[in-house]
């Protein structure tokens, strides 16, 4: 696992992390909601947040690290301005998503789990958006897109580049 | 001999009473309900293949090797996670299972290096064994493709490969050999309770990660070794095994560090110690260990260890190496000369809490029989003497009431003035396990210790009392229990004197003992005291564990009595899960006290004034024993300064470093004419010695240690003494040189003499200890198997005695010149004065003593983290570096005393416990100010040490 360098000042991360924890630590099983909150706050989960969370929840740093690295949805580095997720699960594959995946990587010039050099977009794979009826599908900045084809891909590329 | 092979049952034993009968491969087996099929099968002698299961941790069911078939059930469930059911018919070996297991093993091996011949685990690898067990003959998947094994692949870096982590001094982590079975992670969590390891990532990315993907040394790892023990491959391996190779025989013995008394297998190759592995049948540790016992034994072969006897005329002379005969003849002659010149009482001796019972018994016997006086004392004087007094007065015996297993049934655990996580780590792990199961924890300690805020085991109540206010706070807990009617009247009426209780109850109920009043002087918020008292009195089985934070005070004995009162008042005594338990600091403090090391007591805590007791020894030893107590350590030093005490035999104790008011100790020693030090190293006391007798380590002798739960554990010799003689032999030769006709050929004969003369040891013999592993005294006709729990059904003294505990503030008070309170303690990686652990790689964790100071106090004084500071008290001053932390409260500073150059005891005063003279280490009024470096005392002392450690004919003085 990589140890992404945080772009924030450590004191700032600690204070903002503490604020997120304060809002959510009363929940039952608060670790995942707190990590979501942190990701919302920073756009990713900074390493500097983990010791603060660990201390607040009386768990070890290792445990916090184990949980955050288990879930791919928790980012360890800031994402691009747009996040594009292409579904790679079975139903979409049967409807040609492999070709879609190859095409979008070519168009954006990046691979999966990568962010464009200009910071415009991050490309992630996703395993089922529950949109199998409209396969192949994708999600752009939280909005699902069904029945992907070459034209729709061009539109997506134009939008993230704008 | 051979290597002791312990059976791994795969999953922990079930404690259920209900028995279940099932059939495994046609054999009938009966096991407790809740037992796994895997364990039941092993009980029947059938070992089901396994990788991720081991009986130190709960079943996990991830390796898929232990699958079985069960009649009437579909599929192939894992035997480790499937509990037995009545009448179950299990098959552990079918064609289907064989095929599945082989397939699983193929997958494992396809991502594992095939370097078995050169691998450190060769001969001790479960993966290798299981591959053999399932009949793996080839791996159809090959070794190409994604893997974690090869550094480079197809001409490029393999990003999945990770280099070895060599950061821990005692073991390596080689990720390329890891099969991700999670045994290390689970051992760290379930056995040790540190949670320093995790599995990071998921799927093929899963890796074992210390901390947050850190090297072991930088993570939260405390190097207890549980993960290394759990690892089925060479992924986590002791560096000693990598260097030496696999051991070929092993001997069960007892750790020589703290009072937990863990049992270990010393695994040997020839007479070289390969590794120490905790023994699962050890009743104190149940297969667990800490960094000290597991790894820090390198001092035994450290280059500074002295192996030849030495003498010198004056302490300013260099040492001269002499033969054993000359050294002991010289010593005998000097002692006799001094007695002739200054009187029979002008010499004495100090027994060691580090040595065996047999050795301690011999030293006090030498003094009583050979010296002809009672001038014997022991280091327990400076630690647990108040325990002896307090528990003796209230309950009638001077020892902890429980075994360590008892904590598994405690519901409320009260820790007072102790930090087991650092000083008694294996007990702490067992305690934390119980807390994770739901028991509550109350801690009374001025500091936020590791015990207060450890992960998943945070204290429910932390009472951060001001140092020196123990009596007030504990009495205030009693106030709440009495005034709110939470006491156990039935228990008190049955087992204690009711009128004494009424008197005590009236006293504690007084308004000045209320939490609100006590808050004013202790700084503990009243509601915390009330909450803690209610919890202890009403929360189920309440168990109290306490340490030197209780005893090392001017009112140490009073606090012990207050604790004893608390347990009696709530009926928390005389059954499993409850009790009052002193956590003994050294391996054999309990034993050295049992063996008659005090000037007023013969073995078994029998006062020297008792004619019947003296008779036993007088007729056996053929001498008259003085019916008056002899001198305590501080009295010996006082007498030395006055010129009436001239010679001392000190076995295995460094009083200059460990006793209070260093300047007074050094003045006393300097005034003597013959100071004899028997030790492994030229310790600080040896700077003032005239004779140095090299000591032997616990690896080099037979004997017994008695731990904090009164358990008599065998110490077994695994190598010949490098100095020539075991310590008991040295004392015997000295006794012979002084004209005594001792003729012990083995320590077992000494134990036989102890058993013959001491009622509580009557049935103890090496034969019994070999048979039972260990026993807890009393062990006699009333309790032939020993006594795990004391005071069942009634107190040893008859009726439990309630005693008033009036709080009297110590004379050591803060003022304008000395506004801060210094208290002292320990750290996990170091032990006592550090003579042993400083000579191991444990210094990587703690290379110097630091002064912990609150940010507020530091800022006021212009002190930054890491600055050198001058620490001054009314007794003296020293310098050390500051560590700024909120673990200490404002107004309190804290340090450890593991390093001799710190000389923390130059600071401590000569105030001591009113009943026992136990020094008040835990409270000293001090001032802290910025400093440039070592104090004059430190510089002078350094020079003295350097000079007094010269050995003739050697260029470099030792140390």
What does this entry look like structurally?
- The complex is a heterodimer of chains A (162) and B (959).
- Chain A is built from 7 helices and 5 strands.
- Chain A starts with 9 loop residues before the first helix and ends with a helix.
- In chain A, strands 2-3-1-4-5 form a 5-stranded mixed beta sheet.
- Chain A is an alpha+beta fold.
- Chain A has 2 domains: 10-70; 82-161, Glutaredoxin.
- In chain A, α1 packs across α2 (31-42), α1 (10-24) runs parallel beside α3 and α6 packs parallel to α7.
- In chain B, the strands form 10 sheets. In chain B, strands 15-14-27-26-25-16-17 form a 7-stranded mixed beta sheet, covered by helices on one side.
- In chain B, β33 (868-873) and β34 (877-884) form a beta hairpin.
- In chain B, α8 (324-342) packs across α25 (727-737).
- Chain B is globular, with a radius of gyration of 29 Å.
- In chain B, 58% of the residues are buried.
- Classes of the chains: A alpha+beta (162), B alpha/beta (959).
- The interface between A and B is medium-sized, with 18 and 22 residues.
Specify the overall morphology of chain B. Answer: globular
CATH topology of the largest domain in chain B: Rossmann fold
The quaternary state of the protein chains shown equals heterodimer
CATH hierarchy class name of the largest domain in chain A: Alpha Beta
What is the residue-mean pLDDT of chain B, rounded to a whole number? Answer: 92
Cα distance spanning the termini of chain A: 32 Å
Low-confidence stretches of chain A: 1-6
Strand content of chain A: 5-15%
């Amino acid at each position: 696992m990589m140890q992404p360098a945080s772009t924030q000042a450590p004191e700032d991360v600690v204070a903002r992390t503490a604020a997120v924890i304060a809002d959510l630590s009363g929940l039952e099983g608060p670790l995942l909601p707190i990590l979501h909150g942190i990701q919302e706050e920073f756009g990713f989960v900074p390493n500097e947040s983990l010791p603060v969370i660990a201390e607040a929840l009386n768990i070890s740093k290792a445990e916090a690290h184990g949980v955050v690295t288990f879930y791919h949805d928790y980012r360890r580095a800031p994402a691009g301005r747009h996040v594009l997720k292409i579904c790679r699960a079975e139903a979409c594959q049967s409807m040609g998503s492999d070709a879609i995946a190859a095409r979008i990587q070519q168009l954006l010039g990046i691979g999966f789990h990568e962010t464009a050099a200009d910071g415009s977009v991050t490309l992630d794979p996703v395993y089922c958006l529950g949109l199998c009826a409209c396969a192949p599908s994708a999600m752009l900045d939280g909005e699902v897109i069904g029945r992907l084809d070459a034209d729709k891909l061009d539109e997506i590329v134009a939008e993230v580049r704008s | 001999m051979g290597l002791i092979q312990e059976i791994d049952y795969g999953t922990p034993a079930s404690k259920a009473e209900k028995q279940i009968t099932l059939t495994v491969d046609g054999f009938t087996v009966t096991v407790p309900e809740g037992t796994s099929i895997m364990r039941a099968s092993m009980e029947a002698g059938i070992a089901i293949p396994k990788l991720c299961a081991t009986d130190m941790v709960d079943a996990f069911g991830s390796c898929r090797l232990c699958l079985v078939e069960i009649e009437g059930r579909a599929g192939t469930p894992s035997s480790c996670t499937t509990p037995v059911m009545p009448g179950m018919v299990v098959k552990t070996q079918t064609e289907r299972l064989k095929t599945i297991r082989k397939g699983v093993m193929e997958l494992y091996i396809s991502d594992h290096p095939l370097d078995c011949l050169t691998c450190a685990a060769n001969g001790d690898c479960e993966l290798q064994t299981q591959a053999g067990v399932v009949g793996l003959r080839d791996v159809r998947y090959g070794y190409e493709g994604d893997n974690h094994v090869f550094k480079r692949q197809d001409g490029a870096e393999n990003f999945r490969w990770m280099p070895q982590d060599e950061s821990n001094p005692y073991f390596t982590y080689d990720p390329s050999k890891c099969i991700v079975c999670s045994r290390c992670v689970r051992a760290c969590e379930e056995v040790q309770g540190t949670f320093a390891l995790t599995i990071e990532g998921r799927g093929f990315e899963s890796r074992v990660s210390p901390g947050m993907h850190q090297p072991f040394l930088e993570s939260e790892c405390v190097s207890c070794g549980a993960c290394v023990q759990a690892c089925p491959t060479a992924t986590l391996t002791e560096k000693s095994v990598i260097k030496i190779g696999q051991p070929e025989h092993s001997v069960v013995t007892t750790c020589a560090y703290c009072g937990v008394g863990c049992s270990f297998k010393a695994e040997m190759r020839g007479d070289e110690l390969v590794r120490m592995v905790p023994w699962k049948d050890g009743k104190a540790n149940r297969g667990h260990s800490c960094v000290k016992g597991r790894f820090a034994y390198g001092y035994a072969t450290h280059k500074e260890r002295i192996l030849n006897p030495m003498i010198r005329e004056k302490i300013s002379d260099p040492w001269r190496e002499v033969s054993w005969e000359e050294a002991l003849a010289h010593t005998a002659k000097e002692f006799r000369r001094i007695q002739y010149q200054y009187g029979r009482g002008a010499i004495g001796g100090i027994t060691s809490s580090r040595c065996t019972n047999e050795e301690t018994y011999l030293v006090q016997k030498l003094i009583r029989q050979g010296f002809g006086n009672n001038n014997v004392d022991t280091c327990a004087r400076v630690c647990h003497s108040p325990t002896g007094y307090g528990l003796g007065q209230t309950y009638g015996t001077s020892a902890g009431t429980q075994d360590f297993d008892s904590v598994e049934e405690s519901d409320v655990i009260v820790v007072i003035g102790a930090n087991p996580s650092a000083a008694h780590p294996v007990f702490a792990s067992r305690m934390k396990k119980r807390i994770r199961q739901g028991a509550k924890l109350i801690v009374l300690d001025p500091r936020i210790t590791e015990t207060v805020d450890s992960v998943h085991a945070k204290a429910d109540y932390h009472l951060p009392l001001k140092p020196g206010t123990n009596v007030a706070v504990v009495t205030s807990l009693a106030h709440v229990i009495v005034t709110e009617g939470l006491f156990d009247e039935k228990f008190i009426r049955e087992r204690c004197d009711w009128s004494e209780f009424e008197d005590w109850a009236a006293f504690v109920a007084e308004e000045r003992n209320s939490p609100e009043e006590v808050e004013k002087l202790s700084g503990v918020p009243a509601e915390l005291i009330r909450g803690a008292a209610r919890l202890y009195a009403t929360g189920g089985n309440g168990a109290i564990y306490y340490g030197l934070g209780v005893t090392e005070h001017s009112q140490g004995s009073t606090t012990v009595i207050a604790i004893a009162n608390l347990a009696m008042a709530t009926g928390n005594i005389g059954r499993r899960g409850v009790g009052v338990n002193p956590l003994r600091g050294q391996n054999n403090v309990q034993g050295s006290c049992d063996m008659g090391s005090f000037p007023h007591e013969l073995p078994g805590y029998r006062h020297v004034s008792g004619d019947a007791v003296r008779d036993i020894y007088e007729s056996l030893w053929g001498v008259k024993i003085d019916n008056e107590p002899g001198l305590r350590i501080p009295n010996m030093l006082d007498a030395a300064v006055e010129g009436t005490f001239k010679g001392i035999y000190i076995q295995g104790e460094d009083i200059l470093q460990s006793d209070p008011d260093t300047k007074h100790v050094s003045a006393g020693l300097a005034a003597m004419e013959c100071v004899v030090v028997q030790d492994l190293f030229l310790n600080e006391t040896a700077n003032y010695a005239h004779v140095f007798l090299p000591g032997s380590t616990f690896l080099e002798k037979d004997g017994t240690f008695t731990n904090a739960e009164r358990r008599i554990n065998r110490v077994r010799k695994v190598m010949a003494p490098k100095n020539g003689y075991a310590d008991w032999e040295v004392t015997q030769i000295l006794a012979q040189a002084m004209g005594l006709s001792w003729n012990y050929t083995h320590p077992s004969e000494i134990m036989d003499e102890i058993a013959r003369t001491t009622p509580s040891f009557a049935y103890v013999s090496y034969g019994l200890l070999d048979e039972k592993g260990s026993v807890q005294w009393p062990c006699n006709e009333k309790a032939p198997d020993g006594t795990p729990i004391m005071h069942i059904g009634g107190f040893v003294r008859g009726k439990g005695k309630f005693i008033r505990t009036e709080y009297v503030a110590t004379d050591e008070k803060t003022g304008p010149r000395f506004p801060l309170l210094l208290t002292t303690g320990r750290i996990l990686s170091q032990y006592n004065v550090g003579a042993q652990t400083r000579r191991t790689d444990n210094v990587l964790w703690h290379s110097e003593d630091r002064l912990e100071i609150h940010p507020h106090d530091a800022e006021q004084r212009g002190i930054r983290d890491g600055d050198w500071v001058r620490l001054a008290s009314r007794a003296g001053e020293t310098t050390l570096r500051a560590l700024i932390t909120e673990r200490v409260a404002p107004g309190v500073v804290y340090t450890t005393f593991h390093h001799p150059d710190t000389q923390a005891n130059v600071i401590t005063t000569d105030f001591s416990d009113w009943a026992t003279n136990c020094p008040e280490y835990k409270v000293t009024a001090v001032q802290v100010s910025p400093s440039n470096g070592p104090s004059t005392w430190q510089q002078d002392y350094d020079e003295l040490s350097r000079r007094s450690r010269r050995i003739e004919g050697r260029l470099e003085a030792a140390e």
